[in-house]
Amino acid sequence: MLLAFAIVCNAEGLQWKQDAIECVHTGMFAKADSILASMDEKESDKYAFEIDSIRQIMQRIRNDFNVTPEEGYEEISRRVANLTPGMVEDWKQRKCIETMNIDGKEWWFRKAVRNLWLLDYENFGMQNEADRKKEYNELYKYYIESMSSRPDERNVRNWHKAEIVYTLDVDADAVPDGEKIRVWLPFPFENDRQRNIKLLGSSHKVKKSRGSKHHTVSMEAVAEAGKPTHFEVTYEYEVGAQSYSADVIAQMIEPYDKGRKEYKKYTGSEYPHIICNERMRHIADSITAAGGTPLEQASVVYDWIVDNFPWAGARDYSTIPNIPEYVLEQGHGDCGQVTLLYITLLRSIGIPARWESGWMLHPGRVGMHDWCEVYFEGVGWVPCDVSMGSTVRNEVIGDYYKTGIDVYRLATNECNNGTLSPKKRFLRTETVDFQEGEVEWKGGNVPHSAWTSNLKVNKFKRVGTYNNKK
C-alpha cells in the first residue's frame, strides 16, 4: 500500500493526508492536488513538510512515467518487425513493460522500452549475451587479481589507495540570488575494508556528518544571480577486497546467540522497506525448506533471487511504498531492489543482514551501487553482492559475490532511509539511499533536474599488506 511511504505517512489519523495518499496510490493526482490545495492556511503551515513531500512524490512519478503508449510503440517497432498491439499487451501483462494510469491516462515508465530487451529473455536474451560475457570477463579478471594476493585475518586483501574528486554543480538561478544553498556529498567510513580516510581539499568549508549511517560532508554557499554554484571535495582512502570461501565459513560457523541486541536488530523489521511479514516468512521458508546451516540457507535464497529477478532499470525509489514487495510483483529489480529483498528474506528466517552501498569504481564502469553484509556467528559480517550474481549469472562469480566483494568500491552508507547530518529540512531527493548528493535552500528541496553531480577517480593504486587488528 502507498501508506508505507516512510516520509509522508507517519500517520496522525489525519483524514486529508490519508485521502491524498490514497489518491496518489490509485493514480488520481488531480484529486490529490485538490485536497492539498483546499486546506486552510493554518493547517497548510503546520503540515508544510508532509504537503510538500506528497507533491514531490507525485512530480517524481510523473517524471518517471512520461512516455505515451504511442511513443513507446513506435520505439519498439524500430527493433521488432511486424509488431502488433497484442504483443505489446502481452509484454505489459508479463510486467516486461511497466505502466501507470494517472488521471485516467496510461503512461509508460521512461525506461520501459530499454528494460524490455532485458526482461523478455526468450525473445531478446541472445542480443544481451555479448554484453553479459564481456562483463563476466572483466569481473573474472578482478577476481583473479584479488585472489592472487594474501589475505589478513579478516580475509581482506588486494589493498588499493583511491583518490576521489566529487563535484556538485547547482544550475544558475535554481536558487534565488542571495539565498544560502546547502549541499551534502558522499564520504567514506571506516570498516574492515576501508581505512586511512583523509580529506584532501574542498571548495568550501566542510562539516563531516556525526551520528548518521549515511556518511557525508556538507557545505554551504550563497547563490549569485545568473551563475551556477560549484561544490567540490577531494579525499583519499584505502580499500580492500574481502572474501570467504564457503568451506572456511562452514568450519567457523556457530549457532547464533539470539539474545544479543545486534542479532535482534538485524533480524527484525526496519520500516518501510525491510518488513518481515507473513508473506516474506512464507517465501523464505519455502525457499529454504531443505534446511541446512545459515550459510546454506543464505546461499539458496541468493540463487533464488538470481534465477527469478533479472536486473532492470529502476524507477525513483522514493515513489515505491515497499521495495521488496515491488520486486516480487514486478519480477525484476536493480541492485538496491534485489538487495533489499535479499535482506528481508534472510531476516525473516533469523539470519542477520544489513545494507551497505556507495559506488562501484571498476575502470570504465564507475557508477552507483548497492550491496549488503550477512552475519554468521563465529565468522562476523561477510559482504555479499546479489546484483553481481544476477547480472553475470555465472557460478564462479556468483559464488564469489555470495560471500565476498571486490576492491573497486566506495562504501558511504551503512543503512537505508536514515537521517542525514546535519538534518535535511525537506524531502530528500534520495529517500532510501545516499549516493548522488542532496541540495536544498530555505524554500525547499532543489530537484535533481536543477543540479548535477559527478564522481571522478583520480588515482587507484595498489598498496602494501595490512594486518587488521579488529
Would you write up a description of this structure?
By secondary structure, this protein is an alpha+beta fold. The chain has three domains: 63 residues; 135 residues, Immunoglobulin-like, CATH 2.60.40; 158 residues, Roll (C8orf32 fold), CATH 3.10.620.30. Strands 3, 5, 8, 12 and 16 form a five-stranded antiparallel sheet that branches. Helix 12 runs antiparallel to helix 14, helix 13 crosses helix 14 and helix 15 packs antiparallel against helix 16. It starts with 14 loop residues before the first helix and ends in an 8-residue tail after the last strand. The N terminus and C terminus are likely disordered.
The level-1 CATH class of the largest domain: Alpha Beta
Helical stretch count? Answer: 16
Number of domains: 3
Q: Report the biggest beta sheet as strand number plus sense, adding barrel if it closes.
A: 5 strands, antiparallel
Q: Which segments are poorly predicted (pLDDT under 50) over 5 or more consecutive residues?
A: 1-11, 466-470
Question: Can you tell me the CATH architecture of the largest domain?
Answer: Roll
Radius of gyration: 23 Å
End-to-end separation in angstroms reads 43 Å
In the CATH hierarchy, the third-tier topology of the largest domain is known as C8orf32 fold
The proportion of residues in beta strands is 15-25%
Structure classification: alpha+beta
Shape: globular
* pLDDT averaged residue by residue: 93
Helix content: 25-40%
SS elements, strand count? 16
